[in-house]
Every structure is written in C-alpha cells, then in structure tokens.
Amino acid sequence: MDTAYVIDTLFTLFSITLIILMVPGFAMLEAGLVRTKNVSSVLTVNVMIYAVASMAFILVGFHLAFGGFQSQTMSQWAFFMFQMAFVGKAINIMSGGVGERAKLLPLTLFTVVMGAFIYPTVVNISWGSDWLAGTVLDLNFVDLAGSTVIHSTGGWALLAAILVIGARKGRYVQGQIRVIPASNIPLVVLGAMLLWIGWFGFNGGSVGSISTKEAADSVALTIFNTNTAGLAGAISTGFLIYLRYKLFDITMILNGALGGLVAITAGPHLYTMVDSIIIGGIGGVLVVLAVPLFDRFRIDDPVGALSVHLVNGIWGTLAVGIFASDPIKGISLMNQLKGVGVIAIFVFSVSFTIIYVMNKIIAFRASDEDQLEGLDVSECGLEAYPEFKRAI
Amino acid sequence: MKKIEAVIKPFKLEDVKDALAEIGITGMTVSEVKGYGRQKGHSELYRGAEYVVDFLPKIKMEMVVDDAMVDQVVNTVVEAARTGKIGDGKIFVSDISKIVRIRTGEMDIEAI
After folding, report:
1. pTM of the entire predicted model
2. Closest residue in chain A to residue B48, using alpha carbons only
3. ipTM for the predicted complex
C-alpha cells in the first residue's frame, strides 16, 4: 500500500516539475515573438502570472474547486501542488495574447480574479466538487488534462481581453495588416520545445496514478499519444504553409505543433496512435487557418494563443466525442459539446464583464506614447536589450 | 583634407580594407547601415502576412585623407568593392576643415 502511495507521489512531483518547465517555455516563446522594446515587460508578466495565479489558487481557488485536499493515493501536498501547477498555464495563455500593449498592474489584478475565482469555478464544474451536480447544467464531459478547462478557458479570457484592450498600435492601419516580426527566433524555438516537453507532465500526470500495471500503461499511452499529436501538428502545418506560400515559417510550425498538443489534451488516455495523428494533424491545420482569420477580424494576437489554445481547446474536447465515444461510459459528442458550450459562455461573459469594468477604473491598454517607447521603459524601467551595451 | 565616405556591400568590407592597407591607408571608421538606391528590397512572409523590406544592409566606411591621396583611394575602393550588380554602393568626397588627434593634440595633416 505504502509503495503505491510513494510511487504515485514521486510521479506526481516529477510531473509537476515538467509542468513548471512550461513557465520558461511560455516566457521564452513570448520573449522571442515580441519586439525587443517589450521583452522585459513580457517576461515580467510571465513570472508574475505564475507567482500571483498560483498563490491565488493555493490560498483561495483550490478550496473553491475541490473543497478539501485529502488524498488517499498520494501525499496531499503533491495533489495540491499538481492542481496549482495548471493555474498559471491557463492564465499565461491569456497574458501572452495581450502582450506589447497591456499594462502589468491591471493584468496582475485580473490574474488574482482568474486564479481565485474564474478558473477554480471551471475546475469545480468539470473535475471538482461540482456545484452543478444534479442540475440541468451538470457537465459530464471527458477532459483529462484540460483542453477546455485550461486551454479554452485561457483562450476565452484572452478573447475577452483583446476585445476590450484592442490591438497593438500601428498593427492595423488604413485597412492594412502591418507585420510586426519576431525579434528572436532561437528563443521562440526554445520556448515552444520546453512547452512540448512540459506537456508530458501536463498530460501524463493527469492520469492520476502510475503505481499499478494498468495505470502505468495508461500513463505511457497518454504521453505517447501526446507526443504523436505534436509531431502530426508540426508536419501538417509545415506541409500546409509550404503548399500555400512556398516558404517555411518556424513560428507557424511550432504553433501547429502546440495546437496538436492542445488538441490531444482532452483524451490522450483513450486514443489509438492513428487517432492521435489525425487529431494532432487537424490541430495544425486549424492553426494555419485561424491565424490569418483572426487578423482579418482585426483581433491582434502576437503569439497565436487564440489559434493554438482556444480553437484547438474546442477541437480537442469535441475530438473525444468523435474518436472515443462510448455509450456505456457516457462519452458522447453531445456531452463534450455541452461542456464546451457551458464553459465558453461562463468564462467569456465573466471575463469580459470583469475586464470591461476594471478597464473603466484602471486602464489595461498602455498609451500610444508608452507603446512607441516600449513597455520595457514605461512599465519596467529595465530594458531587455539596452542601447550601447558595451558603452562601459 | 578630404573625407571619403563609401557605402558598400557588407561582404566586400574585408576586400576593400585589404586593398586600402596596400596603398597605405591604415585607419578608418566603419558602421553598419541600411539603405537602398536602385536595388529594390524584397518581400518576406510572417505568419501568413506579406511585407516588403525596402532597406538592405550596407557597410559605410569613413576615412579622412590628404588631398593628394583622394583619387588613389577612390579608385582603390571602386576596384575592390565593385561586383557589377546593382547595389554596389556609392562614394562621397567632402571637405574637412579641421582634424585633432585626441591623445597628442596634433592637428590637421599631422593628425591623419
């Protein structure tokens, strides 16, 4: 008995470590995709989000989501921390997409609300103690590691934020889409690959246990399917953009891989290898279609977070109902759709309302002058790439 | 005394520097600049959106020489920097009214 407890605790702690690797993952990905004058601000947001969101969750949010945190199968602290590790990811999705024009203080304040209330409510009705049990809104959908609970939640909050805050200055001028290229491609690749590897803990750890033969098989299958979906996403994206543009854009290929990883996240323990290839492959295709589409609607997303996390969060959740439906276990497309819909309405409307109201009191959007000078100067007083580096 | 500014293609820097060393020019200031003349830019693609990059990287070399050396220096730079293709660059010659060597205080010709 004790052995299983110890093994499960160890495995959970290992998974937690991988998930926290996603913090530098997001950080480097975003640092590379924004302009040099905003890099410090983006990195500061990433670190503060992790700290503030996690703290809000362990102090308040966890109890909202789960009630108590006794666990029979592993150390309660491991279980507690494992849930905490997810929070920052959901909110990082949101903070990345409003980079280069969102001010740090209001963003941090919203993080508290999201970490203490919005995200835990989603967890409550999906995985946790379930306020909605027995009501007509009772959700019974499969989402192992959070295609909806983490990725779509972050995505809907981000969409709400972008609609309130607006695009970066100079992005959409006189009906034209002005390109703002990435400043550091090596960092983009480093960040995306750290996310990819971190996903093994994100999905693998979500199985919940590894200490029986069955559980070990499930964890291994989960991680295998996760990686496979990433591969398929990268390949389908690379193929599609080459077909369309005769060029390879590594930022898109990585977004496609991440899209595949998001798409597999709802049911990696249920799929076959072929399922994973298809789901991940479609995830990549969706990213290629979504990125220019959001631009067409003048929704400015410097890092592609909406295409990767929102669009594929929805696809990933629905995919369970298509590829792994099981009437006996109650897994169906309808149930998945209900989960997607209810959480969409909740997260989007609450986020939009809160951000809209907060915005009236403390403006989220940095002024035009601050955006021109760069948020490193106006928000941080610390330039990531100072002029005349070797002046001394 | 004349200042000679030469805007050349970046990969020609070593060739021009070596050729000038051979005729006795051993000092210059070099900066990385961008520019275009008749050599147009090119288009690039970022996340599905096309954009035009007009400015091309160039190297600007600046040196101050005695009047007597001007023609020789100009010809040497032209020979070494020419590829025959559009974008080879330009040379500008202008007058210098005063030179001072900071370390010693030497002026004008002695400071070259």
Report:
1. 0.92
2. A292
3. 0.79
